[in-house]
Amino acid sequence: MGLLLIFLLGIGNFAVHQAVRQSRHPLLGQVPFYFHLLGGKFSLAVEFLMLLGAMLMVAQGSWGWALFYGAYTAVNALAAWLILSRRV
């Protein structure tokens, strides 16, 4: 059950991440150079590694990582909302 929840949160994280990347918000021009590596897909690779790590830790019984990933998703969603609604 925990793995499914983490996986669904990961899908949401990828969706908002991609939406922010495609928004062409001026804030994206201020991120460090390494976020632009691989045509801007380096940050998606980091997102995948975070999801993979959280899923591996939850599969081993570490429920603290599930809480961490849930909090990470909430902060990610809030930041995406702020950027996409041009409040930042």
Features:
88 residues; mainly alpha
Task: Give your account of this protein's structure.
The chain is mainly α and 88 residues long. The chain has one domain. Helices cover 74% and strands 0% of the residues. It contains four helices and no strands. Helix 1 packs parallel to helix 4 (63-84). The longest helix has 22 residues, at 63-84. The chain is globular, with a radius of gyration of 14 Å. 10% of the residues are buried. The model has no long low-confidence stretch (mean pLDDT 90).
Would you spell out the secondary-structure blueprint of this structure?
Layout: H1 2-22, H2 37-40, H3 42-59, H4 63-84
Short description:
This protein has 88 residues and is an all-alpha fold. It contains four helices and no strands.
How many separate domains make up the residues? 1
Instruction: Show unreliable segments.
Output: none
Distance between the termini: 36 Å
Tell me the β content. under 5%
Summing up helix and strand content along with how strands pair, one would put the structural category as mainly alpha
Sketch the major β-sheet: none
The chain-level mean pLDDT equals 90
**Amount of helix:** over 70%
- Strand segment tally: 0
Q: Output the number of helix runs.
A: 4
| Inertia-based shape | globular
Helix-strand topology string: HHHH
